[in-house]
Specification:
With 792 residues, chain A is an alpha+beta fold. Chain A is built from 19 helices and 28 strands. Chain B has 153 residues and is an alpha+beta fold. Chain B folds into two domains: 76 residues, Beta-grasp domain (Ubiquitin-like (UB roll)); 67 residues, DNA polymerase, domain 1 (Orthogonal Bundle). The chains are: A alpha+beta (792), B alpha+beta (153).
Chain lengths: 792, 153
């Protein structure tokens, strides 16, 4: 039987999506359901003086209206930060309470204050208009640079500072800088983004009055975690009375990691009103209240020798947490960011210092790449600047500082098990026809255009897991993953995974690895996920961890199945276990033609009595059935890496940037399904290029989000991109049996510096901040013209 | 409430609906044809694209009453006798979808493109699909799928 790992198996999930039979949360309707509409703060910062629901309660179709007062009375807890980060001085981080419905104060536009339940959506909306809320409006804190000098938003949180964190050794860095020939300095912003999964968030809640069980259908990347938080911190119901189902989920990108206010409120309220509840976000609600991403201001310095060797690196960053710290809010700008800021280079000394602050904006949390795009942008921009200042080629300076031996102990935290950065960059150089750039530039210039080329080499730490490590760093839970593999008596296999697919293709990839392990046709394998009532507790999908953690749990459970099957087969075949070999779904006795298929063995495992010639097939000590589970906790993160090269053409008359060529060469170790992996790279690139060229979440001074619709927030469209040119190198991960590395975030990590280095190259080295909109680029072209004419 | 009569995926449908009912609301909430998705509220994302009298439109901003007497095809009506349309087949073959949420609108839009242009170039495909936002695929495999479908139709 040919191995399925490595082959382009067509996706098992596609038929239902292509024929309109996908089942997303908003597609679910329950008999007798009510419709929820949330009333949200129109102010970025205000005290709630009074809420008057009397008129609204009399409005047609209204079932109930609940406020922060009700939720406080019922002692329902709020949203939490998942990671405890300590400041450099050893003090604990400072987090404000984040109640599901605001009672005393609101802290960003969109903060929910009350909720209306009515017989129809129209009636709920009409009643929401009648709820009167008196606010005392306060001055909003929205400028990231000024936040620490502004009035404190939350009581007891001085300077709006959550923590002032340090990773690395300041003295060593100082010593390195003292020895440097040159110090390269860079000030950058990492623009705020809105993840914008195409499916808006939603939840549908059922309350069973007989069993007192709550079922919450929701748009989540990790239903088990949502249930845990809703139960342990929200106190909505004990875990055994709470079922969370995340059916088909239309994209997440980090924005659906968090449990949100609406899920807690509706789950609590369904029990209160004893009716099912349906809530579906409108797109503007998603813009206002989904967690946002990025939003850093960074000052970085790189100490170099005249011949381009790196000696030391400083990274001073202010990170915006928004109004509240959420699940990955505090770790994203620290452990997911700081360690990766030295990039793929041998860097004798480095530190990352991050001040995370609260502002009156939507909470900022993990967004595809989470911390690693910000880190990669910092180092790859400053390395390019170093090349410019030293008069070196951007590829040459990178090659000069790559590690050549693996495992490579990266400066700040990570022990990188495997990689070959030289091979990756050489391949990208060749595939992109780097050497032909000068001719293409000349051609562009002959048409009055500017052309620039940009290079990035990156590594990232993903497959977020090793529980002992993450818990030592402050994570509130372990980040293992679970799997259960059930062989049914009649031969099909059902795999239960704690990972969750919201586009990642688990139904296919996980079936491929299961088919290989068990020798069962892929058609006979079902992957079940997304329902806390089906399968064991799992940690969910984010940080490119599904395959490297969840997939390996499946492999390990399969190995247990094969081992138990072997004991049974040996008994059935009246052979010694040592003489039985398992291959391609069959147990074969060495040097004989005696064999049993794994299906026959599975069937027999459920029939432990005497049957025909088979005396009980179960060896002594084995229980009936063929069901095994595994919890996999890897020894380390996985470390994908790669080199990307982009070319842009800039029209100096309009400032328009056209991305002309994009080459990505990535090393994801073993690739299970090349088609799916390519798709992940394409999608990541689109988001990364979006950050570089078009996307920007913008708040005005009063804290109004002025990019709260697709009319204002520039989502990348089909005509923004060229055809991407992808290549792969492979060094297998040594920390898991498949040799796989995470692939989901690479594009979003590598693309922003790649494209910006190209744009800045086209602008003759003049720096601009992301996104490189036509306006900014045009202004830079004008400045260049002016300084050129002054020089002449 | 007013009466509206439409032919939807080949079946005659008559319903009493509030006057402000959009076509997408009629399809999703009244007829339970939930394959048509709502991804925004500004007629920008294209997840709600269906065909009305053979032309692609954004059903979230069309009033059902104004379409009285029209023939509507949704993603549920694209396959014939259980066999997927060549566009659906091509999306499956070339991995033109990931989370699947934008997919129904994307497919309906692409089918209409091929009615207008038999063998569109990459640029023409990207230009046509400008009104359909996909956050997962980076559009590359969608463009490839449309070309594949064009070659099969």
């Amino acid at each position: 039987m040919a191995s399925l790992v490595g082959s382009r198996v067509e996706r098992k999930e596609d038929k239902r999506f292509l024929t309109g039979k996908g089942r997303y949360t908003a597609d679910i309707n329950l008999a007798n359901q009510t419709y929820a509409v949330f009333i949200r703060s129109p102010h970025a910062r205000a005290k709630i003086k009074k809420i008057d629901t009397s008129k609204a309660l009399k409005s047609s179709g209204v079932v109930d209206i609940l406020t922060g007062e009700h939720i406080a009375t019922d002692k329902i807890g709020g949203l939490i930060a998942g990671w405890a980060i300590r400041s450099e001085d050893g003090s604990e981080m400072k987090c404000p309470a984040n109640p599901p419905l605001a009672k005393d104060s609101v802290n960003f536009v969109g903060d929910p204050v009350a909720v209306v339940f009515a017989e129809s959506l129209d009636e709920a909306k009409a009643a929401a208009e009648l709820v009167k809320i008196d606010y005392k409006v306060l001055k909003a804190v929205t400028s990231l640079a000024d936040t620490m000098n502004s009035e404190a938003i939350h009581d007891g949180i001085d300077k709006n500072l959550c923590y002032d964190w340090l990773l690395g050794d300041r003295q060593k860095v100082k010593d390195a800088f003292d020895k440097a020939d040159k110090i390269i300095k860079l000030d950058i912003t990492n623009n705020r983004l809105i993840p914008n999964a195409m499916e808006p968030r939603a939840c549908v809640i059922d309350y069973n009055t007989a069993s007192e069980e709550i079922t919450c259908y929701t748009t989540s990347q990790n239903p088990h975690l949502s249930r845990l938080i809703m139960s342990a911190f929200g106190g909505v119901a004990p875990e055994n009375k709470l079922r969370v189902v995340a059916p088909d989920v239309g994209g997440g990108f980090g924005s659906k990691i968090n449990l949100y206010n609406e899920e807690i409120v509706c789950s609590w309220a369904a029990k209160k009103i004893e009716r099912p509840i349906k809530w579906v976000a409108e797109r503007t609600e998603s813009f206002l209240t989904d967690t946002h991403g990025r939003d850093h201001i960074t000052h970085a310095e790189l100490a170099v020798t005249n011949d381009g060797k790196f000696l030391g690196f400083k990274n001073e960053t202010i990170a915006n947490l928004g109004a509240y710290a959420r699940v990955f809010g505090t770790v994203t700008p620290t452990y997911l960011f700081g360690p990766c800021a030295t990039g793929v280079y041998v860097m004798p000394a480095a530190y990352s210092n991050v001040k995370a602050v609260y502002t009156n904006t939507a909470p900022v949390d993990a967004y595809r790449g989470a911390g690693r795009p910000e880190a990669t942008y910092t180092i790859e921009r400053i390395v390019d600047k170093a090349a410019i200042e030293l008069g070196m080629d951007p590829i040459e300076i990178r090659m000069k500082n790559f590690p050549t031996e693996f495992p490579f102990k990266q400066t700040l935290v990570h022990q990188i098990d495997s990689g070959d950065y030289v091979a990756g960059l050489n391949k990208a150089k060749e595939m992109s026809d780097y050497d032909g750039f000068a001719a293409r530039k000349k051609d562009s210039e002959s048409r009055g255009k500017l052309r620039g080329i940009g290079v990035t080499t990156y590594f990232e730490a993903c497959g977020i897991a090793p529980s002992p490590v993450v818990m030592m760093l402050g994570c509130g839970v372990g980040l293992w993953e679970s799997a259960e593999v059930r062989f049914n008596p009649t031969g099909q296999v059902t795999v239960y995974t704690g990972s969750h697919s919201h586009g990642q293709s688990h139904q296919t990839t996980f079936a491929q690895i299961t088919a290989d392990e068990l020798g069962v046709p892929i058609e006979n394998i079902d992957i079940v996920h997304g329902d806390t009532d089906k399968g064991t507790f799992g940690m969910g999908t984010y940080g490119s961890r599904s395959l490297t953690v969840g997939g390996i749990a499946i492999v390990n459970a399969c190995k247990k199945i094969v081992a138990k099957g072997k004991r049974i087969a040996a008994k059935m075949l009246e052979a010694s276990e040592d003489d039985v070999e398992f291959k391609d779904g069959e147990y074969v006795v060495a040097k004989s033609n005696k064999k049993k298929t794994i299906g026959e063995v599975a069937f027999a495992s459920y029939l432990p009595g005497v049957r025909d010639e088979v005396k009980s097939p179960l060896p002594e000590g084995d229980e009936p059935g063929l069901i095994e589970s595994s919890f996999f906790d890897p020894a380390n993160f996985s470390f994908p890496a790669g080199s990307h090269i982009a070319e842009v053409e800039v029209d100096p008359e309009t400032g328009n940037v056209r991305l002309d060529k994009y080459t990505a060469v990535d090393d994801f170790g073993t690739i299970v399904n090349p088609t799916i992996v390519e798709g992940q790279v394409h999608g990541g690139l689109a988001q990364g290029i979006g950050q570089a060229l078009t996307e920007n979440a913008e708040y005005d001074e009063s804290g109004q989000l002025i990019t709260a619709s697709y009319m204002d927030y520039t989502m990348p469209r089909a005509d923004n991109f060229p055809e991407f040119n992808l290549g792969f190198t492979c060094t297998k991960a040594t920390t898991n049996p498949l040799g796989v590395k995470g692939c989901g975030e690479a594009g979003a990590i590598a693309a922003p510096p790649t494209v910006m280095n190209a744009v800045i190259n086209a602008l003759g080295g003049r720096e601009i901040q992301m996104p490189a909109t036509a306006e900014k680029v045009w202004k830079a072209c004008q400045q260049n013209k002016k300084s050129n004419s002054e020089a002449a | 409430m007013k009466k509206v009569s439409l032919e939807i995926n080949g079946k005659k449908v008559t319903k009493e609906i509030p006057e402000h009912t959009t076509l997408s609301t009629l399809l999703r909430d009244i007829l339970n044809l939930t394959g048509t998705h709502i991804g925004c509220d500004t007629s920008q994302c294209g997840a709600c694209v269906v065909h009305v009298d053979g032309k692609s439109i954004k059903s979230c901003t069309a009033l059902a009453l104004e379409l009285d007497g029209s023939k509507v095809t949704t993603i549920e009506g694209l396959a014939t006798n259980g066999k997927m349309h060549p566009m659906q087949e091509a999306f499956k073959k070339l991995h033109g979808l990931q989370c699947g949420f934008c997919t129904p609108g994307m497919v309906m839009s692409a089918v209409d493109l091929l009615k207008n242009k038999k063998n569109p170039s990459d640029t023409e495909i990207r230009d046509w699909l400008e009104g359909n936002i996909c956050r997962c695929t980076g559009y590359q495999n969608i463009v490839a799928a449309v070309k594949e479908a064009a070659s099969k139709m």
